[in-house]
Amino acid sequence: MASTGPYNLPLATALGRSEPLSDLLRRLRQSQARLALVTPQLPSALRPFVSAGPLDDQAWVLIAANAAAAAKLRQLAPQLTAVLLANGFDGPPLKIKVGSRA
After folding, report:
1. Would the CA dihedral through 66, 30, 34, 86 be positive or negative?
2. How far is it, in rounded angstroms, from Cα 70 to Cα 64?
3. If DSSP codes are grouped into helix, strand and coil, which group holds residue 64?
4. What is the pLDDT along the chain (102 residues), one digit of tens a residue?
5. Is the dihedral of CA 8, 11, 13, 17 positive or negative?
6. Percentage helix, strand, coil, to 5, in the chain?
7. Are 66 and 30 in contact (CB under 8 A)?
8. Distance separating alpha carbons of residues 33 and 14, to the nearest angstrom
9. Residue ranges per structural domain of the chain
10. Dist. CA 54–CA 44, nearest whole Å
11. What is the pLDDT of residue 19?
């Protein structure tokens, strides 16, 4: 039988009780929602090489798997930003970074 002590809370409960963790979860969900909006604008061959990165007050980051994917994302950035604005995401600017895994 699983223990239900104070150190064995379900993840959702723990996140709800902690303001920093709750804020992190909110930003993660917003980042994923932004990615879902811009993905249809990406060429299908590019999609597997792009993932959502962090979202904070400074920027929302799209992570590209390699430099070529990042270059294409930078070309598409104005179009992607327009889609975000048209859907009510008028927050921090879009940034593109090359990551080890997209």
Report:
1. negative
2. 5
3. strand
4. 455 555 677 766 766 677 777 777 888 899 999 999 999 999 999 999 999 999 988 999 999 999 999 999 999 999 999 999 999 988 899 999 999 654
5. positive
6. 50, 15, 30
7. no
8. 23
9. 30-98
10. 23
11. 78
Q: What single-letter amino acid sits at 71?
A: A
For residues 44-56, b (16+ Cβ closer than 10 Å) or e, as one string?
eebeebbbbbebe
In this prediction, residue 102 carries a pLDDT of 42
Q: How far is CA 30 from CA 6, 23, 33, 36, in A?
A: 29, 11, 5, 10
- Strand 94-98 relative to strand 60-64: parallel, antiparallel, unpaired? parallel
Residues 6+ apart with CB under 8 A from 17: 9
Q: Which class in CATH covers the domain with range 30-98?
A: alpha beta
pTM score of the predicted model? 0.78
The number of CA neighbours under 13 Å toward the Cβ of 86 is: 8
Say how far apart CA 10 and CA 41 lie, in whole Å: 37
**Pure H helices in 18-66:** 19-38
